[in-house]
């Protein structure tokens, strides 16, 4: 564990909160000095007052979405994260915020790699091997558990996505599951986030070491507080979506490791 600096799970949300606070101050100053210049006859009319409720409501929705999203991205108790993401209103507000993040990402260009609630790196496919990217998590932890429930959900959702695309369903391969879980756990244990581990092993090296035989293979990884955000983030990312819907793949292994306040690590291993 690093003894100096702000850890990765808290750094981005804290920076976001600071920027939001600055925005609120500027917004308030603009209103304070511009509002008195509006003629009283216009300010006091009923239509004007009613119209003022609309931006106030929308602002409230945005603020609540951001607050819940920031809470999910901070190192807070898992029970609180579960209650937020599991509630009807909470999940709706967070998904709304994630959609806005995705829209901004498309505007600025590039694949979705990092947001307040989702981190990934370019997908790996043995047919098209991208340059390996690495994210330093700024923390390590060995207090982890396997999240079997989330693995089951991801398996179901991925096959539902493949069904929509008229692609054959994937079948669980226990050897791939072992490879996926080991990699997700290793990333938490050694504080890195990448397809290639610190020993220089690629996903395909790890598959071969795990006794997996294949002609084609691929790997997706993600770091997020909930399985919903991880799945949605991967599906919004073209490279990861391509792996998920690849008709050449027939077997899969999911490794979802829960590190409590630090969130969850996701590995998807695909083979023919």
TrEMBL record:
InterPro entries noted in UniProt: CAP_dom (IPR014044), CAP_sf (IPR035940)
All residue ranges annotated as the SCP domain in the record: 158-261
Superkingdom of the source species: Bacteria
Keywords: Membrane, Transmembrane, Transmembrane helix
SUPFAM superfamilies for this protein: PR-1-like (SSF55797)
Spans through the membrane: 14-35, 56-76
Gene3D superfamilies for this protein: CAP
Pfam families (alphabetical): CAP
Name used for this protein in its record: SCP-like protein extracellular
